[in-house]
Each structure stands twice: as C-alpha cells, then as structure tokens.
C-alpha cells in the first residue's frame, strides 16, 4: 500500500483543469518539496508568491495542518479551499497588514512570525 509521501509524488505528477491527475503534466510546484503525513501538509522554502493551485486541488479538502513557512507569499488566494484547516503556519513570508484572511471555521492556531505585518 502506498504511503502518503508516495501518494504526494504520484499526485503531483500533474493536473488537468478538472483536477484529474495526468502523469507528466506540468504543475506550479515542486513535488519533491511536499510532505503530507497524517493530514499535515508542508510546502516550505520554495520561494512561491502564492499558494500553488495544485496544492489546493490535491490537498485542500484533506489538510488539517498547513505549513507554508519560508516562502515569499504575498497572497492567500486559495486558502479558503482548505476547509478543515486547524493549524496554519505562515512564518517568514512577505504578508502585509492588508492581507485578508478567508473564513476558516476550524482554525485555532495561526502563526505569522517574521512577515511584513505590524500586528
């Protein structure tokens, strides 16, 4: 039986517009940088400016804990599709005070250390 990590490599091989996986299709993220274990998703240190659409499509409905630290995020577009999110770590990004957070009814832990905010 494949592990979650093996599944993440297979899943990230590619996406069709309908969310189906197609091997060899290009995505907007580096599959080897993904760790998905026990509903915890980490995609750190990838210098991305937005949440990769492939992450949203593949994992949004399954993730309880999301770590996007050490990227260059300036937008949280797509975060609303992580509907079961309980923990969110966004440390060391480029998020400003003007950033708008979507309604995340299950969220109880949020970390925003070392961003461009003054909160």
From TrEMBL:
Organism: Nicrophorus vespilloides (Boreal carrion beetle)
Matching SUPFAM superfamilies: L domain-like
Transmembrane segments: none
Listed name of the protein: Leucine-rich repeat-containing protein C10orf11 homolog isoform X2
Superkingdom of origin organism: Eukaryota
InterPro entries named among the record's database cross-references: LRMDA (IPR043313), LRR_dom_sf (IPR032675)
């Amino acid at each position: 039986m494949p592990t979650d990590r093996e599944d993440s490599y297979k899943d990230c091989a590619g996406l069709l517009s309908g969310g189906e996986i197609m091997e060899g299709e290009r995505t907007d993220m580096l599959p080897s940088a993904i760790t998905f274990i026990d509903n915890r998703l980490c995609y750190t240190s990838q210098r991305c400016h937005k949440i990769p659409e492939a992450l949203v499509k593949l994992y949004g409905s399954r993730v309880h804990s999301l770590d996007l630290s050490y990227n260059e995020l300036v937008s949280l577009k797509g975060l609303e599709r992580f509907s079961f999110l309980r923990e969110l770590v966004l440390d060391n990004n480029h998020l400003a005070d003007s950033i708008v957070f979507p309604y995340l009814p299950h969220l109880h832990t949020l970390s925003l250390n070392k961003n461009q905010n003054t909160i």
